[in-house]
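Researcher: Here's a chain I'd like modeled. Treat it as a single chain, no partners, no ligands.
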Amino acid sequence: MRICFLFLSFFISVCFSSQIQEDKTLLLQKGYEALVANPKRSEETALYILHNVPDQRSQQEAKLILIKSLYYQNDISRMLEQINTDSSDSDPESLITVSSIIYSLGINKGYYFENTSKNKFTHSFIKLYSSLDKKDKKNSMLLLKDLISKTTIKNRFALREFWIKAFEEIDKDQFRTFRQEVRKLMAIYKDDDEFRLMNILFSLKERAIVEARINLEKIESDSLEYSPNKYLKRRYYETLSQLYFDENNKVEYIKTKEKRNEINKEIEAEITKGRSLWFASVQRQNKEHTENVIQKSKSILWGIGASFIILVITLTIRLSQLKSRQKQFRLFQKKIESFSVKKNSQNIISEKTENLLLTRLNKFELTKEYLKPDISLQSLAKKLDTNTKYLSETINTHKQKNFNLYINELRVNYVLLKLKDEKIYRNYKIKYLADESGFSSHSLFASIFKSVTGMSPMLYIKFLNENEDDNEDGF
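Model: Modeled as a single isolated chain. Structure tokens:
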């Protein structure tokens, strides 16, 4: 009887475990399938798995689904919160998936990307982008064929954003050369609406307008117009506006172009915000990494020193040297305590004075006096009717940076607005931009500009120009 009971328990346990496995697989499958068309649903599925399914593999896959669903919804800030900037413990699929998104956002520098770029796929795609940019057709063809041969149903999810960017790099002159390779890849992503839209754009490049119209009508327009996937909606209106342009339908072209531009502004605004958050996170990670290295070095040095002292104590006057060590340790403790007291006593500015100084600082930021090359902590303190100590403490506490970085970032933000709103500034030399914004040298300007935006001034200007309307209206 007991044996029968044990056998029955074992049988029920196996059946229950099998059912759980089937449920996990089905949930993950639904999460993947809905990603492009309905990322909101995929987000909900991923969160359910993360909260209710404990096994590690399901957790990893759900995390990737969550990251991509937030990316497609243009919720870049929340997406970046899900990414661990330390990639050392990430599995290969996670590295490829996340690095493809990071690169598509223009965040191709920093601690995370330096590690992920060692991955063979990431490295090969970066080489492909470079070859396409240089119009090196021979090398581009070799890289395309190699990467397409390695793209499978299994890894296409991880590589998707890399391929999206690769297609965007192929211009009209290069397209005919790579048409056969493009078709092979389209077969792999045949159920992906964004790739279907890109394929229609390729048809328009070949002036196959009727074919493009027929293929577009096969896609459900309602699902695209109301999709929470911002990137898919932008691609839809981009395709539609290009088709109207080629059909010489001026009214509809303008309408769809405006919708595309409106979505594009939303995406770019969130990406800019996301970049700032990412670089701040990377900066903290690098700082922590450096501090850990220093701490480990100190620990090693202290260990060596302690061993040496123990050896000397053993061979010489042990008791005398032990007392000396204890005395030195007490002195060191007192020094640390006095330093802590001194540090705590530094914040002597009253709340009322601090608030008044913050108000004056905010008014100062609305002026352009920070563009003056000779501005200094002393001159600004005098202007704000305070002393340098109060001003420095307020900037450090509330702006979370020192005075020089505070002024330089104001100057860079001034240049960013000029580049965005007044296109003539994009034609000026870097030295002119540096002089106008108050920097003492163009090299300092370029360095600060890159630390704020994550890219050089020239690359940023190129990025702005490429993200302007793809074609002039032509009417």
